[in-house]
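To: structure desk
From: M.T.
Subject: fold request, one chain
Message: Could you run this one when you get a chance? Sequence is below, nothing fancy, just the single chain.
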Amino acid sequence: MDRIGIAIIPYNDIGLDETGNLAMARNTQAIGQHVRQRLSFYKGEWFLDADVGVDWFGLALGQRPARLDIAEAVIKKVILQTPGVTGIVEIRSDFDRMTRGVAVRKCVVETEYDDPAIIY
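Reply: Done. Structure tokens follow.
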């Protein structure tokens, strides 16, 4: 079966299969979800280990647009350190002036399963 990639469910919704049961993520889809979780996790958010997560406030959020390159470097580092990721094919991000934040619009990563994971 030819697959261009497996799209990860946007907005962190619970995935259900065609029968309405909880859909378990496996292989490429699980790697894509792990990337998304890691990018969404703020440093200091987990009470058991304040060093876990990405230091978004210190590195990118609330900063001037010139810091977009630093945010993209952090994003790439987190992605490449995710278990099962073998490379980055494409990444699209931009700076939102209203929120003074960075938004990753699309990310395509190569995985150890030879199928790319597409993360929106």
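Reply (cont.): The two ends are 23 Å apart (CA to CA). Let me know if you need anything else for the meeting.
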